[in-house]
Design brief:
Layout: H1 2-17, H2 24-31, H3 55-67, H4 82-114, H5 120-128, H6 132-160, H7 167-189
Helix pairs in contact: 4-6, 6-7
Length: 191
């Protein structure tokens, strides 16, 4: 920082003592090779023109400019990957599980005020009266997000250690999480 200030001050002092040293002609003559002819006429310059326009005309100019802009690629041109789906499902299952936990916890607390029967015995009796297929389906649907979120969370913890970070390992662990989630949910549903 100090060296930049010193250099800037020295250049300013030099410019004050010799004002013609930093003119366009002098700069281009000093920067040009000896074999290249230099003249101020060969320098290309482009002058910017501005004009005052009202808001409506400015919007019309912007609309015309936007018509000529390139369109960025959309997700439809990319091949879907397990990493996309695992990332999205991890967030969705986390939100669903935490939301369900808070909703049930709040309703359990206010149930006596409204006369709701959310006691464990009442819930167990209601669940026990369902047909077998309904019980298995409900347990499977309850276990699947929990299992997926748990196994994918372990996968992320493994990544935090710096392991399994290659492209192939990420794909393999992603499909492993899906397989383990389906199998574990099935086992939990039939318990």
């Amino acid at each position: 920082m100090l060296s930049q200030r010193l250099a800037q001050q020295a250049l300013r002092r030099f410019a004050v003592r010799q004002p013609g040293a930093f003119s366009r002609t002098a700069l281009f003559k000093s920067a040009a090779p000896a074999s290249t002819p230099t003249s101020i006429n060969r320098i290309q310059s482009r002058h910017a023109a501005t004009q005052n326009v009202n808001l409506e005309d400015a919007n019309q100019i912007l609309v015309k400019q936007r018509l000529h802009r390139p369109v960025s690629p959309h997700l439809s041109i990319y091949r879907p990957q397990i990493t996309w789906y695992a990332s999205i499902l991890h967030r969705i299952t986390g939100s669903v599980l935490s939301g369900a936990f808070y909703i049930f916890g709040f309703s359990y607390l206010v149930a006596p005020l409204f006369g709701w029967h959310l006691e464990s015995g009442t819930l167990a009796a209601a669940f026990g009266s369902l047909p077998l297929l309904a019980k298995v389906g409900i347990k499977y649907l309850a276990a699947l997000p929990f299992a997926f979120h748990s196994f994918n969370g372990i996968r992320h913890l493994v990544w935090d250690t710096g392991r399994e970070m290659s492209n192939k390992a990420v794909q393999v662990t992603g499909w492993t999480v899906v397989g383990l989630s389906v199998v574990t949910s099935g086992i939990l549903a039939f318990m």
